[in-house]
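dumping this here before i forget
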Amino acid sequence: MNQKKSLKELNLLDKFLFDEAMDDPENVKIMLDIILSQKTKLKHPPQTEKEQRTSTDNRQIRLDVYAIDEDDVIYEVEAQKENTHNLSKRSRLYQGIIDSKLLPPGVVDFNLLNEVLIVLIMPFDLFGYGLYRYTFHMRCEEVPELKLNDGATRIFLNTRGKHPELVSPELIELLKYMERSTDEVSRECKSKRIQEMHRRVCQIKASEKAEVKYMQTWEEKILIKQAGIAEGEQIGRLKEKTELVKKLSNKFSIEQIAEMLEIDISEVEKIIKEIAK
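structure:
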């Protein structure tokens, strides 16, 4: 696990601080307004860490920020610090699971599907064209200017873009601030909205309640990792024992194998039965 940062050292691309900051509807509104160059009016308080799945048999997803505006447009925003090399298809899964929840049973008019906009914010260039922003809609391959107009939009934002002429200066400031959420970067921002966001972020970093929650979250991650390591070691030892018993079973008795491997006879018998299956 990476070395633990203090709460004050976290940036908005760090999951804990992003989730805490986006619990504040005003921060979500500022972020969406700048990204989309519009005035967003949210219908309900945004949800962070929202769990979604189509059924208990299917994979669950956890959405960083889920919000709905007064026009029933759905926004899902993710801060993605690491390149997992699957983000395009991951965004497709998110799109599909969100869509599957939008129409109640019995509704046959698919035009009632909400517009859905998925945004991923990353400190790397996923597509390699040096852009700050990549916006995707469904288009016809044979007629490139023909849009499908299915109400689905996916936006990938790169905090390290190189073509400032293609986006607003305020969006660039927001992306820089998300990567380095410090007093210094905030002071360099001309945007009053980003400075207001920074004021709210500073309140979180100074909060004892947030500090305790952050410590608990970190401790939970440590315990989960330790449990995973222990389970992996146990599986590894079991595989190793199975291979040894398999090699020895043709030459030695069960009692001899148990003595050589320093395990119970019953465990050797159990492994031999599994091998036989």
